[in-house]
Amino acid sequence: MSASSRQTCCHFIPLNTVSFTWPSVGVLIITIFGILNKLSGFYGIISFDFSDPVAFAVYIYSLLAVFVCAYALYGLHTMNLNILRLYVIFYWVDCVISTATTVWFATKWYAFTDHSLPELADDLVKQKEHDDVFRMESMVSISLLVVLRLIHVYFAYVITCYYRSIGHRYSKLSIDRDFE
Length: 180
Known about the structure:
Blueprint lengths: L2 H4 L1 E2 L3 E2 L10 H14 L1 H7 L6 H26 L2 H32 L11 H56 L1
Antiparallel strand pairs: 1-2
């Protein structure tokens, strides 16, 4: 196995950089994307839409997750294994929570929301065309949601691999020091 393949996760995301005191570029990018994603909670709060308590709870959760991700950035910068361990746990929990809320909102939107247009009630051809377009858009949207959830799981796996590689490196360093 070459050195370059050992330093990547799934031969795609780098696990370390030139100096191992710097955090992984891949995990750093994943964490920044996580912060940007969770900033949606801020926009949900300022929209003043408090009619759906589940959506409001997700907005609050997203805002709290921004702070957790920011703390993870600090842990990545300082190479603090305790913070990184908490971040790995949080990311997997976030993956489950995000998947559950995605399923909740998608089901609510596609199954329980009336998408008919009253102005098309008299024109059956246009109503059928509207329903066909909505069905096609629904399939595309659901496919994208599934792909995004799978990417979220993959990112959780990458963060876990990074944490394990850092922990393994530090345990080797402490063993080497014990023998000196």
